[in-house]
Task: structure prediction
Amino acid sequence: MDITINVTDGVPIYRQIVNQVKYLVASGLLKPGEELPPIRTLALQLKVTPNTIVKAYDELEISGVVHKRRGSGTFVSEARPHLALRERRRIVEQRIDGLLAEAHQLNFTADDILRMVRERKAAMDPAADAEPKEVEK
Amino acid sequence: MGQAVVDVNDLSRSFGRKIALDGVCFRATAGQVYGLVGANGAGKTTLIKHLLGLLRAATGSVRVFGFDPVREPVRVLGRVGYLSEERELPEWMRIDELMAYTQAFHPTWDASYAGELIETFGLDPSKKVRELSKGMRAQAGLVAAVAHRPELLILDEPSAGLDAVVRRDILDAIVRTVVDDGRTVIFSSHLLEEVERMSDHVTMLHGGRVTLSGALDDVRHSYQRSRVRFAEHFEQPPVLDTALAMEGGGRAWSVVHSGSLERFHHSVLALGGEIVESRDATLEEIFLARAGRSRQPVEAA
Result:
């Protein structure tokens, strides 16, 4: 499982694992029914205390992303569309929050950003959107 | 689970006029990893030597598995694995002799596990300890410390001076110890990133005293690091309530602070500033802030 831990960004490690597993599930990289690595394997891979993995898997189970089968392992739950939507929104919203904070520092308003997002989208994908383009700011 | 493996109560110790430990309390429960951090001379090794019965508690008490390790060394040490910073190993022994020698003290010795580790580490069993490199000594010491599958593994600065490969071997040994039926690890380290990854609990020693102790996530959550911007320039760090350490200059400062976020926010506002970003501090930031505080107090009265 492709997970990266960053100890310098201030987010608890178990939470980094929870967020990244949710992201893998929401983006379809982890499929319903797929098994997550055993605690021992993931702890060895990430070089973290096994209790952190236990904590992360417990939290994922509480939020319905995975379920545990007695005597075997931890599996991705069947798709729950509203959950996936909520999670997808959360991921994008995090990025938007960062963007807005940075834009504020650089003296752009939210409206400037909205316009710039449309411009960038049009530039990346000229055929999809025929709105007239403004090129300022 | 939840049973006290180590219980140190109000332990003090002096060497001559130097106070090495001052009223230290420390508890470890089964199945958890405990990180000990602190500057050189803070008392980490002295505390560990008390757990092993190498030093007798002058004041206070030390219990390991409920026993006094000085009075009942056999009942304690047979269940403990220990790797010291100096890795005191008999120089004249070959690795296979060292294993046979260590095995003799430990009825629970798992020879196939020892063999597997020696092979993984690529150690030559016929080599003498004195011929080993620093990293190989650490690996040999590690095998001797874990192959009897101790209920309590104690590592004193296991990573000191080692390359990334051997450090990884040591972290793997910690993980395996805890995963296998809830055994306990206590390790000291000056590599705070390692402690942050591997510990469930952290205890910080400073001048022989415990300055900080608790579940790692709780400890980190009680300290924040904030980026702050002010309308005016400050030549000197501005005085902010609850701040422990500050760096930066002019209008932009980065502050490590503890306790009430509201109090901090108030005092930033009072100086015409705003908080740009706040997050839990990392262990390294907390450590540096706590260590720096005694030299250069920046906390408001």
Q: What stands out?
A: Chain B has a mean pLDDT of 90.
